[in-house]
Design brief:
3 domains; alpha+beta; single chain; binds zinc ion; 3-stranded antiparallel beta sheet
Length: 272
């Protein structure tokens, strides 16, 4: 499970998630350290599992330990993780996405309910507005979303990112967060996998696409992979491998987005 998968899972568990469960996952600590998920308090009570009667017991904090008092077996200590619940830190997630896409017109609070405007990116055909809505899988989700969007200025293109579900909508394109960004373990921010222009079907401001600041370095890598006979056949697979190689070779440079590497792979292969 990737860090983004894990984040989406925590977002879609609308109820509070337990830290003990997610602590088993490899990327949990990264999400936690970067502030994308946060603790939101300990449970007030638990079911006692230590004695023969089924009873609830109030959690207490005594002598630096969490636990509860069971009438039969006395004080039972409980690991903090087992009773700590988690929630996604939505303002941090939304601002992280806005940074990754270079958005303008950001909004730091929800539009309404659980719908957020991440911000806008320009295109030749007018602005693309990116929104986040946790889940888009049924009519109720669609109603909540459209009620929230009716409060916002309508732009030429709209893209809704979700943690789960991509119900088709007549007025917007929908995409899953896991298909659009990733959260590499060695980086502190989201990196972009899919360009909002492509998701929205919007023309690019700068035809030909990606900025060329990576061109020379990427072409060197592409050429060396051909020379070493390690270039992969699939364009996406090769772009990922090239991007990984870029990150290993230039750990202190910002990595190009996967969509720009794909662009260079295509360009390189067509001999341009
Ligand atoms: Zn008990």
């Amino acid at each position: 499970m990737s860090a983004i998968d894990l984040l989406c899972e925590i977002i879609t568990l609308k109820a509070k998630a337990s830290a003990a469960f997610f602590n088993q996952q490899q990327d949990f600590q990264a999400l936690f350290r970067k502030g994308l998920i946060r603790e939101c308090g300990v449970a007030q009570s638990v079911n006692c599992l230590e004695c023969d009667t089924t009873h609830d017991a109030e959690i207490v904090h005594e002598a630096g330990r969490y636990g509860y008092h069971c009438p039969d077996v006395g004080f039972v200590s409980v690991e903090r993780d087992e009773i700590m619940s988690l929630q996604p830190n939505m303002p941090r997630i939304v601002s992280g996405l806005a940074d990754a896409f270079g958005c303008r017109r950001r909004k730091s609070t929800p539009l309404q309910g659980s719908t957020w405007r991440i911000g806008t990116v320009p295109s030749e055909g007018g602005d693309i507005t990116l929104y986040f809505h946790p889940c888009l899988s049924d009519e109720q989700d669609a109603l909540e979303l459209s009620a929230a969007l009716s409060r916002d200025v309508r732009t030429a293109f709209r893209v809704i990112l979700t943690a789960a579900g991509t119900l088709p909508l007549p007025y917007a394109k929908t995409a899953l967060l896991i298909d659009v960004v990733e959260f590499p373990a060695d980086r502190s921010e989201f990196s972009v996998l899919a360009d909002p222009h492509d998701i929205a079907g919007a023309p690019r401001r700068n035809p030909g696409g990606a900025p060329n600041r990576f061109q020379d370095l990427l072409v060197q890598i592409l050429q060396s992979r051909v020379n070493d006979c390690i270039a992969l056949k699939g364009r996406n697979a090769e772009a990922k491998a090239v991007r990984d190689q870029f990150c290993r070779l230039y750990p202190d440079k910002a990595a190009p987005s996967l969509s720009s590497v794909q662009y260079y792979v295509t360009k390189f292969r067509s001999g341009q």
